[in-house]
Design a protein that fits this description.
The protein has about 190 residues and is an alpha+beta fold. The protein has helices spanning about 25-30, 35, 45-65, 110-125, 140-150, 180-185, and strands at about 10, 15-20, 65-75, 80-90, 95-100, 130-135, 150-165, 165-180. It is globular, with a radius of gyration of 16 Å.
């Protein structure tokens, strides 16, 4: 999809840009236990773990089917989080949306603004017909963002994943969706 050039997406306050090797310190901090407690992936314990994660991102870029952006504030270039389209299925015109915000930048609207921009981009430039997001039922801040950007709770997936908060049990997740005809309201 983006094999020739990777898009930079700008809003009034944010820049969503391609991840760079020098982002390693930021991504190591972003993977804190607090940030990743409701996630399905293991937090990075070392810089080597983060380096492997970045190498995976760069491989995904080369494959052109999974896209990660770092979220920066326009005013000072400070990184506040990450947002992605993953599990992109061009045949089905579908992608999954995910986002992570560093704790000290939460509740400032960054996830909402970045997600709105990415949804608009997905529908208008990529021709997506469905964007979905999985969210742990306990993850109230993310549920709030997903509902604020116009996504609707479509399903409850019971005993779906093992979350970092408790790897001993399978946890339930909600599936949220949005379609092009709905995005005009966001």
């Amino acid at each position: 999809m983006f094999k020739s050039s990777f898009p930079t997406i700008k809003t009034d306050e944010l820049i969503l840009r391609k991840v760079k090797p020098e982002d390693i310190v930021f991504f190591n901090a972003l993977s804190s236990p607090e940030t990743s407690k409701y996630e399905f992936w293991q937090p990075h314990r070392t810089f080597e773990d983060t380096q492997r994660f970045l190498e995976t991102i760069f491989q995904r870029y080369a494959e052109g089917k999974y896209f990660d952006w770092t979220i920066e504030r326009k005013e000072d270039g400070e990184q506040v989080g990450m947002i992605s389209f993953h599990d992109i299925y061009p045949l089905h015109a579908r992608a999954d949306l995910g986002f992570w915000i560093v704790r000290r930048f939460r509740n400032k609207g960054y996830a909402t603004k970045a997600a709105k921009a990415l949804i608009e981009y997905g529908f208008s430039k990529l021709g997506l017909e469905r964007i979905q997001s999985l969210c742990a039922v306990e993850n109230e801040p993310s549920i709030h963002v997903l509902e604020k950007i116009g996504m609707k709770r479509e399903a409850l997936l019971e005993k779906y994943v093992r979350l970092n908060v408790d790897k001993t049990k399978l946890s339930d997740v909600y599936m949220y969706t949005i379609f092009p005809e709905v995005k005009n309201g966001i």
